Amino acid sequence: DVLRDVDLDLAPGTVTALVGPSGSGKSTLASLLPRFHDVTAGAVTLGGADLRDIPATELYRRVGFVLQDVRLLRASVTDNLRLGRPEATDEEVERCARAARIHDRITALPDGYATELGTAVTLSGGEAQRLSIARALLADAPVLVLDEATAYADPHSEALIQDALSALAAGRTLLVIAHRLSTVRSADRIVVLEDGRVTEQGRHDDLLAAGGRYATLWDAQRSADDIREGSAR
Q: What is the C-alpha to C-alpha distance for residues 153 and 216, in angstroms, rounded to an integer?
């Protein structure tokens, strides 16, 4: 089993961030909520109900996700955005695209919102992320899983994605897999995973003060950022 002895409670309206080295179980843990995997022992519950007892259509109305590998349909931009809520109006679609900072890019496409995505028209990684955030905004699920949402983004796109995520987070319960620790320092709770186990949890400042694994990861990432900045000058 990838995960062992994990016991987490995501309080409504809070942000919980999962951090840890590659292979620590972050993606596996996050994939349990949208049921990409099921547990072999114990249970994952939503509002007291076992996820395995919730019909898929109901589950995906309540749990949204923005994944590292964004899958876009070979369909119009509008159809891609309406995936979680087909009955949404054009006005609602545009409002969510604006909130996700992707409206301007869409209007620059050959046919705007009617543009077919596929071989002729493709989006960058950061643009696809923002489109998937707009889709999650439109679906309006109260629980959201974000898996390394800025992993492939350039600095400009990352800033836009952070703005979009701020709009998305309002009033929702978020489970975020952190690629860059700086993006989750304001999380209500940071959970450190190692080898499938929770080794630390708390707020950013408290974990830094504890001088444990999180502090080590933070210092290592800060050093790497300093080196990158130095080489970019």
A: 24
Least confident range of 99-108, 188-197, 200-209, 224-233 = 224-233
pLDDT score of 94 more than 90: yes
Instruction: List, in order, residues 6 or more apart from 54 with CB less than 8 Å away.
Output: 46, 62
**Alpha-carbon distance 29 to 175, whole Å?**
10
- In the predicted model, what is the mean pLDDT of residues 205-232? 84
Residues in the chain, overall count: 233
Q: What pLDDT score was predicted for residue 1?
A: 67
All domains in the chain, ordered by first residue: 15-232 (3.40.50.300)
What angle, 0 to 180 degrees and rounded to 10, lies between the N-to-C axes of helices 125-139 and 90-99? 130
Beta-strand pair 143-147/173-177: parallel
Q: What is the pTM of this model?
A: 0.78
Instruction: Please give the pLDDT value at position 70.
Output: 78
